[in-house]
Amino acid sequence: MDKETLKQVFTAFAERGLPKVQPRALTLPLDSPRAVVSVGIRRSGKTCLLFDTMQRLVATGTDRRCLVHVNFEDDRLFPVRLTELDLILQAHAELYPDLAGQRRYLFLDEVQNVPGWEKFVRRVLDTEDARVFLTGSSSHLLTREVATAMRGRTLAYEVFPLSFAEFLAFRGIVPRAHSRASAAQCAAALREYLATGGFPEVVLAEGEVRPRLLKEYADLVLYKDLMERFNLDNPHLLKLLLKYCLTRPGTFLSVHKLYQDFRSQGLAVSKDTLYAYLDHLRESWVLFMLPKHDSSLRRQAVKPKKVFAVDPALAHPFAPEPLLDRGRKLENLVFLHWRRQREDLFYVADGYEVDLAVGEARCEALINVAYSLTAPEVFKRETDGLAKALRVCSGASATVVAEETTQAPPPPGIQVVPAWKYLLHPPA
Predict the structure, then answer these.
(1) φ, ψ (nearest 5 deg) of residue 67
(2) Which range marks the domain in which residue 70 is found?
(3) In this structure, which of 103, 155, 174, 245 has its CB flanked by the most CB atoms within 10 Å?
(4) Is pTM beyond 0.85 here?
(5) 3-class secondary-structure state, position 104
(6) Does residue 220 lie in a domain region?
(7) Is the preceding omega at residue 79 within 30 degrees of 0, hence cis?
(8) Is there a single domain that holds both residue 301 and residue 403?
(9) Rounded to whole angstroms, how far apart are CA atoms 422 and 19?
């Protein structure tokens, strides 16, 4: 990376109009003295969130030229070393000498590609009149080591693919209360959302293009975010692991059972390798693991965990959509609905089952999910589990979320909510 190339990048950026982006539910603070970090899986909208922040700054009167945007995946800048990062400030100052004394806003995209980046950012925060915004596709940006290196100077936000409410906004659908037509429209949109997922580019693409985009995303995750970043040497195993997890959302994942299954298929694999690969999938925001609620952390650690994808549509490159369990995909969406807001989430299995329990010290909400409640045995199973859990978790709300509901009255203290309506309201 050199100053002349940076000046070309800055000039081209200033000459272009800021891209128009669809607003998201998440907005970043404009004037934080800490580095504002946006992290999440690729293509979830982190860069668009930066552009939205830039537009909001310009709308408040900030000079467009004070916005310094650097994408560390720009091939014109390769390779980038820590010692060269100060060239960003030097090149910008030389290009715009009339801006001397004005605050700069640094937008550093995919910053994890520069080892030691936190040293540069910390110095900028300590010595320059600047605000810093960062994006990255690795949860390494949130580890204790980075927090220590930044001395508590970060403010982190997770960026997920579109929620159902955001999906409706992208589709131009405005839900209307007390309207049967609107309810039918939202229910139909949820069925599309289950099939399409929430990656913004996929949602906005033509129908025939979406499978190709999802295949490209899966390849990016497989080869760029995992094989290259973590220096893995078994792409076949990683692909099998991705297929196993992504096509079975909401199911229990036992590393021991997975190890036995893979060994029976003739794969030479160790449990340590499986644990390591699963950790990498979590670190890259591909998967989430939901633990069993247990007062003993030791027991909790050894119990199987439920696996969920950051977006159910990531399973499509590995299995045709009609073969995927719609109820499991809906449970995945309900999990993400809560996970966008908080992390103290569990499942319950103590002679009865609850798909999702919210709250660790005190259980606040209990949720079971089913695609259809029209079969009496399904309705009984889902409501009975919640009724038994309420005897232990008194004071918690209890809800069955379903795409197809029923007129049968639930037991006292339990409500049945259509899935489209449940996913439109913030978790509470």
Answers:
(1) -90, 115
(2) 3-158
(3) 245
(4) yes
(5) strand
(6) no
(7) yes
(8) no
(9) 33
